[in-house]
Recover the amino acids of this structure.
């Protein structure tokens, strides 16, 4: 548990908590539950996270850790953290809303994270309805408390720092990122009352002979 970092009152962005998604369109690509969390660069939790990044790097790469981290720092695709100014919207060529001047951490996992209820207790494993109900409350722009765990990647795909999404708790509403849900209610009025249809005639009491049998 010591390497799990708890971050309180962080802003949620790009959440995929209701169902897992793939970050690429390649057939067969693994689907994961994922989020970005946005926090101030001077937030003590971010300093704690970066200290843990250093620790796992030293544990993995020893005396070469600083050289490897320097390489990772120079390529955003190799790390799960960074300056919000790096997260550029390809449409506006500016940082995504909410990211500018901040720090971010991207976390994901193939298994669903623990969903923490308002009283601090975790939703029971396998209680899909309760999990989904809480997951649907979380949108880009809301505030969450979250637990994450950085780890080192060192495989055929290269070296990097990645982050497991361990648990998440809704902490409060915030201004939604993007356009939010469209509201067209002002275009509608009250539906006029519709007269009930006349009852169909009853044929009880006499037989009806089909025309093709009457000749």
């Amino acid at each position: 548990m010591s390497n799990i970092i708890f971050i309180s009152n962080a802003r949620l962005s790009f959440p995929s908590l209701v169902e897992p998604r793939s970050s690429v369109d390649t057939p067969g690509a693994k689907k994961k539950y994922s989020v970005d969390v946005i926090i101030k660069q001077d937030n003590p939790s971010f300093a704690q996270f970066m200290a843990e990044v250093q620790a796992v790097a030293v544990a993995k790469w020893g005396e070469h850790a600083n050289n490897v981290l320097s390489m990772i720092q120079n390529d955003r695709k190799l790390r799960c953290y960074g300056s919000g100014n790096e997260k550029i919207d390809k449409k506006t060529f500016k940082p995504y809303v909410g990211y500018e001047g901040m720090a971010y951490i991207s976390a994901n996992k193939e298994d669903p994270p623990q969903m923490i209820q308002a009283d601090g207790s975790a939703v029971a494993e396998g209680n899909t309805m309760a999990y989904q109900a809480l997951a649907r409350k979380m949108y880009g722009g809301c505030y969450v408390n979250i637990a994450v765990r950085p780890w080192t990647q060192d495989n055929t795909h290269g070296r990097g720092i990645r982050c497991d999404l361990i648990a998440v708790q809704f902490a409060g509403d915030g201004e939604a990122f993007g356009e939010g849900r469209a509201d067209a209610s002002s275009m509608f009025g009250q539906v006029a009352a519709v007269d009930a249809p006349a009852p169909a005639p009853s044929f009880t009491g006499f037989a009806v002979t089909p025309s093709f049998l009457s000749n």
About this structure: Residues 203-215 have pLDDT under 50 and may be disordered. The chain has one domain: 5-179. Residues 203 and 211 are 16 Å apart (CA to CA). The beta strands are 5-21, 32-40, 81-83, 102-109, 114-116, 143-155, 158-172.
